[in-house]
Amino acid sequence: MYHQLERYKSKDRKKLMQNILIMGSGAVGGFYGAQLASVDRFHVTFVARGAHLKAMQGRGLRITGLAGMHLHPVDAIGDPSTLEQPPDLVIVAVKSYDTLEAIRLLKPAVSTRTQILTIQNGLENYELLSDEFGSERVIRGFCKIGAELTAPGVIDYRGLSSVVFGEEDGTPSNRVLQLQKIMEHAGIAAEVSRDIRKEAWLKFLWNGIFNMMTGLSGATTDMIFDDEDAYAVAWQLFYEMQAVASAEGVRITDKDGTDVIEETRGLGAFKTSTWQDRHKGKPLEYDAFCGYIVRKATAYKLAVPVNQAFLALYRLFEQS
To answer: What total number of domains does the chain contain?
Structure first.
């Protein structure tokens, strides 16, 4: 494997990224970090906090479900500023409401050669990271995965794992091709997108519909399809987001809406990340979705009454 990686070099013979920092080691970051850590070529450091951090430091990280794995010992820390050397690659997987804090913690830890991949939910995180570190050091991406942190140090993997990323201009640059190779060597399905902005919007649409509806109602995704009125609300959310995307210069078609919504029927009683957070009493990641749409719609003078209603109800739920 080492020789395969060594042969994959650009003409300027840049070194492949090998010291990897997982910024946010919950269900998503922890799962992908575990896969990367299983490759001898890569040294992976996990950033976590609380009981999860203590469990990883003491008992390691265990993956259950469709992928069985136990990493022990695990290089897990609470503050990336304690790293002895800057990482080559940072994968940011914190919740959107923790992005600014993640940036603060990362600033003393990264170098000008560090590349940063965001696989977070939402659309604003890429802009926040790029504003701080520069677009030449930040790669927009997202993931599709069914996983849950079921106990400190334990992640249950339920399938659907893939990571998509790409350059804003669609070029297959050396850095994204290197990143694809790194992912593939760890057994991670990775795709370099030629239109990452639109694909990120399509993922955003799914979250803006299903995370928002299940997180507020406490229902699983299958129940939306079983209720005629709920199904109509899903489409109303889509049309509002479609209008905002158009104002942002991203063309989303009605067929895109059909694909996003109807493909979810096959997931059965799927528990979205916001559904999981609600049932665990954790903060809810709603501002990155309905909040973002309301802010953008206000700027463009668009009417988004359903998203406004969701935002108000989420705020009330949070306050209560």
So the answer is: 2
Contact present, 164 and 199 (Cβ < 8 Å): yes
Query: Burial, 120: exposed, middle or buried (Cβ in 10 Å; 0-12, 13-18, 19+)?
Result: buried
Backbone angles phi and psi of 286, in degrees to 5: -100, -30
Show the domain range for 135.
2-194
Cα 298 from Cα 74, distance rounded (Å): 46
Phi, psi of 11 (to 5 degrees): -65, -30
| Pairing between β-strand 19-23 and β-strand 115-118 as defined by DSSP bridges | unpaired
Distances (CA, A) of 87 to 38, 55, 100, 192: 17, 23, 19, 22
Could you tell me the CATH number of the domain that includes residue 165? 3.40.50.720
- 23-65 tens-digit pLDDT: 999 999 999 999 999 999 999 999 999 999 999 999 999 999 9
The answer to whether the CB of 92 falls within 8 A of the CB of 119 is yes
- Verify cis geometry, omega within 30 degrees of 0, for the bond prior to 73: yes
pTM for this predicted structure:
0.90
Q: Which amino acid is at 152?
A: P
- What count of residues does the chain have? 320
| Domain end residue (candidates: 173, 194, 215) | 194
CB neighbour class for 54 (10 Å; exposed up to 12, middle 13-18, buried from 19): middle
| β-pair partners for 154 | 62, 151
